[in-house]
Design a protein that fits this description.
The chain has seven helices and eleven strands. The radius of gyration is 30 Å and the shape is elongated. This is DUF2911 domain-containing protein.
Length: 297
């Protein structure tokens, strides 16, 4: 029996040593993980009702000149608009870029920088990497010019961002060194929102106070039919008036030049905001009442 126990113990020890050897061997072969010189970045922005996602790698200057002749990014040469892999831009819906139509999808974002403007190229190829001349021009989706501008502060690391957002548009900014270039994204908003209003509010039979309020706010913000907007916001306020919705009613009445009605609605909203301890809406209503008073003089 003692011999059997010793034999089993020997076998177990041998298996343990073998497993340890495998682990050590695999550890010795594992690649060392270090930070990338040009780290990956993904930026996403909702423009109107459309999601725009840009994925790129961010090189840094490191004391080197960036744009010009015999530089990191020579003028007149196609650039992957970043480092490492191809920079990609993805749209969840159809958009326009500088007024040109682009279908929903993901594309390679290539540029040809020059001093006064850049040529921006969206191509169906997203896997070219450094081989920026290897794809076919007939795979281009759109080409357009983007004017350059001088940055107020030096951008050490290449940066892509979004600016100047409106309910339906935004600019994409490409920034490095002291150079910026931008282009405008346009999205279809009105047709989509009006289709929802038509389905849920105009033709729908189960519209909620939130649906009525959202439709009224959209009409107010986009200078549509104010009488219809007033009808909807009144329906939203019928059973459970919220101070923000009553304030919307005051703004609609102001736009309709019903200053007496606007004052009454603003006063009601102010009282509700006081009860809700919302100082911002208290002040907004007081400002609206002052504006209404000025208009009646």
């Amino acid at each position: 029996m003692t011999t059997n126990i010793l034999l089993k113990s020997s076998r177990a020890l041998g298996a343990t040593l073998a497993l340890s050897g495998l682990l050590l061997a695999s550890g010795a072969q594992a690649q060392i993980n270090t930070p990338q010189p040009s780290p990956k970045s993904t930026v996403t922005q909702r423009v109107g009702l459309t999601d725009v996602t840009i994925t790129y790698y961010r090189p840094s200057m490191k004391g080197r000149p960036v744009f010009g002749d015999k530089t990191l990014v020579p003028y007149g040469k196609r650039w992957r608009t970043g480092a490492n892999a191809t920079t990609t831009i993805k749209f969840s819906d159809d958009v326009t870029l500088e007024g040109k139509k682009v279908p929903a999808g993901e594309y390679g974002l290539y540029t040809i920088p020059n001093k006064a403007e850049w040529l921006v190229v969206l191509n169906k190829s997203t896997k070219q990497g450094a081989d920026v001349d290897g794809f076919k021009d007939d795979q281009d989706v759109v080409r357009f010019s983007a004017k350059t501008y001088k940055l107020g502060n030096k951008a050490e690391t290449f940066t892509i961002g979004f600016s100047d957002l409106t309910p339906a548009t935004a600019n994409v900014d490409l920034m490095w060194e002291l150079t910026g270039a931008k282009f405008k994204i346009g999205t279809e908003v009105d047709a989509k929102v009006m289709a929802q209003i038509d389905e849920k509010v105009i033709k729908g039979t189960a519209a909620t106070p939130n649906d009525y309020a959202a439709a009224a706010v959209y009409y107010l913000d986009n200078d549509k039919d104010m009488k219809q907007a007033l009808t909807w916001i009144q329906k939203a306020n019928e059973k459970d008036a919220k101070f923000w919705n009553v304030h919307t009613e005051a703004k609609i009445r102001m736009k309709m030049k019903d200053y007496k009605g606007a004052t009454a609605s603003a006063e009601q909203s102010r009282k509700l905001a006081l009860e809700g301890k919302n100082a911002d809406y208290v002040k907004m209503n007081e400002d609206l009442m002052m504006d209404a008073k000025k208009m009646t003089k």
